[in-house]
Amino acid sequence: MEEAEMALPDDALAAILVRLPPRSLAACRCVCTTWRAVVDGRRLLLQHVLPHAVRGIFVNYIDYRRPRFFARPSSAAARPAIDGNLDFLPGYGTSFRPIIDHCNGLLLYGGAREMYVANPATRRWQHLPPCKDGGTDCNAYLVFDPAVSPHYEVFLIPRVQEKPRPIDPREYALPIGSRKKRDAWPICPRKKGVDPTTPNLSCLFSSPDDTLVTEDTGDNFREESMELSPALSDEGLLPTISTPSSSSWRDTEPEDPYRSMEWPPSPFTFHVFSSSTGCWEQRSFVREGEAIGTVEDVRLDSLRPMYWGPRWRYAVYWQEALYVHCRGAFIMRLSLINGTYQVIKTPINIEEGKHARPNLGRSENGVYFATIHDNYLLRIWILDELCGDMKWVLKHNVDLERSALWAAIQINYHQRVDGPWILEDNTSDDDDDNNEMLPKQDFEWDSDNGNVLDHEEADEDRFEYIYFLGFHPYKEVVFLKVSFTGIAFHLNTSKVQYLGKLRPKDYYYTYAAGAYESFPYTPCLIGYLPETNQETHPGHQQDM
Fold this sequence. Notes:
Strand order of the largest sheet: 7-8-10-11-16-15-14-13
CATH topology of the domain at 76-162 and 261-399 and 514-521: Neuraminidase
InterPro entries: F-box-like_dom_sf, F-box_dom
Pfam family, one: F-box
Number of strands: 29
Radius of gyration: 27 Å
Distance between the termini: 64 Å
CATH architecture of the domain at 76-162 and 261-399 and 514-521: 6 Propeller
Strand content: 25-35%
Structural class: alpha+beta
Protein name: F-box domain-containing protein
CATH class of the domain at 76-162 and 261-399 and 514-521: Mainly Beta
Largest sheet: 8 strands, mixed
Shape: globular
């Protein structure tokens, strides 16, 4: 045995042991002190004792004051008991702040100016200090792996700079106080030391934090008034000119310093918050391989991943790497071990992505990419990373059978059945007194057998859009939203399970109502978060 130990370095031994099932890995830990040290030092068993069940889904709603937790009610015997109401966070429920990201039991909540990391299972949270140099033109992503470390990190990934827009010359024909607060064109403030006769384009390339705040004096603004005021000319602030009445200025292309810039750049520098240091730092990643193209190429893709749904693209943490779905139809794989990144093209191009509702996620076998074409064709690829050669392999190509999906809609709207999943804190209304309840034989969701729908249960066809709620991280199951009905679709068997109604009872009924982002939640009791309460948070008084 000693000769075998000498033949294998710790890294090689750990790479072998980590592939064993939990029972065999625990047996190997008892073989000798060296193997026990490798298993314990690399925390190889920890990933097997962490919860692997999806306990619910956090959902951000359009124009709704707070996220909601869609889940099956937890029984007293369930451990840990999950309360999806995040009212322990400052300002929760009053500030319209969304959940930004989720990673292995921790939530990232808030906005560009103020973010919190919270653990719903322990009801602990931490307020992140402001990133003064990071700007707000970024997407924030959370990285947490309790099998590797109890600490977490938050990455700010810069977005592509937008193309400059033409400046309406009428903005220079009016006193600053009389300008409209919300005009069709950007307002560029005059700065000291800048010639007022020279248009100032700096605001076009700055963060939203630098926008000018103007005072509305209530003066009447007439669109047809195109001549500069003589008083302004006498003061020498602006030359005496007449603004062209034609729309020729709209056709003038402003200078675009980013147009031909390679994207993503190398090195690519991000602002990263680490809970181990408690502060933000800059971290650079060097690209391996080619860029996706130029900024102009990336701009061909829409800023939002789809017209109706998520406002930003998702990211996935998998085996010490962060996979970020970026504008421009590519995935950026950040290696957190060696400080490099790779550009991986998505299996669909920019034009296809405009109509396919793309979604990046993690499931049983690694990193997944899903699309829904023509509303019914579900396609799912798995990223094959063998030998460092990144390629997408189409694993599922499913024509979503309408009858099975419409059965879920029929149960919701025709029979008005609640559950077995519900929205936490969903107060009852008088209109719902006649609602039926599905029988609850077990408080915990059986992802294999609970509430399976048959084709025969649907008696009419309805046209409804289908949207992703997310992937089950440990099983070949996807969560879908059909109208305001939640369902689970089993990829290997095409089995459909009815989950429940997703509409909050105090949510308005209009065409604009719907869900933005959603995050399947797996609880975790491990992780470094201070035992914070609202009274110790300096901004609590002003938030409430």
